[in-house]
Amino acid sequence: VDLSVSWLGVNMENPLYNASGVMCRSREELDAVAASAAGALITKSCTLLPREGNPEPRYAKAPHGSINSMGLPNAGYQYYLDYAKAYDHQGGKPLFVSVSGMSLEDNLEMLAAFRDADLPCLVELNLSCPNLPGKPQIGYDFEASSHVLSEVVKVYHKPFGVKLPPYFDPVHFAEMASVLNSFPSLKYVTCINSVGNGLVIDLDSESVVIKPKGGLGGIGGDYVLPTALANVREFYRLLDDKHVIGCGGVKSGREAFMHILAGATAVQVGTCLYEEGAACFARIRDELAALMQQKGYATLADFRGKLKTM
Ligand SMILES: O=C(O)c1[nH]c(=O)[nH]c(=O)c1I
Question: Are 66 and 93 in contact (CB under 8 A)?
Fold first, then answer.
């Protein structure tokens, strides 16, 4: 079977890569993803200046996934720009850069720098960080999203994507799709970011499991798979001439297959990568290949977006 996918000028030997935020804050981590069976890699969302992030513990494994309130810890955009400048773009694994400025001005300054560097990497603009106390997720404010994107496309003229929060209402899917469809150079969306501000309780200690925000954090893993699949399918259905990247609940070939069946061009792995390490990519890749073989599909396009309804 052929697991390759070519989209937006990048060629991936398989559709799997890391979710921004996991195993991608340092060059050592990024190199580990690049050295793994992953088909691509993406950097930790970056800000203008380096950030420590929220107090620890800020990540915890949960019975069916994870909770995190990292608080955007990152080395600052210059670090990732330098990594991108030194990266072997011909090496076969596309590099994506996630940008998540603390303000529109910061986003524009970072995007202008990436523009001027004229590198082959694709930008994923994060509209959905749920863990900055006092800062709402842009993606939940349709007016703000439209304004940010209007300013972004004045500065950044290359194709780019956005990381979206999960939506839970058909009206919201339609509203956000309408905003996104008015930006032709916005060529992909990544659905979904973590399900924001969940609460995991440890029964024995009768306590929360992470320190920031009274224990509130973004939820990932098995918990979010149905929501992730719904967002992938809805935006796949509603967006014009854009790709949807699936993220949320992928821990085996089965969920990767589901995301692609729902319309995903490629698939990101977060919680499972955090817990299992980079070996998960070869395992999930082989499981996906076996599933395709079993079902008689030769390529991803044979079943992409072909979810049956009743
Ligand atoms: O807390 C984080 O750093 C974080 N955590 C997430 O779950 N999603 C995000 O987009 C971010 I920027």
Answer: no
Q: Which of 47, 58, 131, 223 has most ligand 1 atoms within 8 Å of its beta carbon, as the pocket-test mutant? A: 131
State yes or no: pLDDT of 242 exceeds 90. yes
43 C-beta neighbours (distance < 10 Å), count: 30
Name all domains of the chain by residue range, CATH numbers in brackets: 5-53+72-204+221-302 (3.20.20.70)
Are 51 and 78 contacting, i.e. CB atoms less than 8 angstroms apart?
Answer: no
Measured from the Cα of 73, ligand 1's closest atom is 3
ipTM of the complex: 0.99
- Shortest CA distance to 45 belongs to which of 141, 130, 162, 125? 125
Quote the distance between the C-alpha of residue 18 and its chain's center: 8
Residue 176 near residue 145 (C-beta atoms within 8 A): yes
Q: Is 129 a catalytic residue?
A: yes
Instruction: Please provide the distance, in angstroms rounded to a whole number, between the alpha carbons at the two ends of the chain.
Output: 29
Task: Check pocket membership of 45 for ligand 1, CB cut-off 6 A.
Answer: yes
With a 6 Å cutoff on the Cβ, whether 218 touches ligand 1 is yes
- Mean of the pLDDT values across residues 175-181? 98
> Phi first, then psi: what are they for 148, rounded to 5°?
-60, -45
- The active-site residue out of 121, 129, 247, 280 is 129
Predicted TM-score of the model (pTM): 0.99
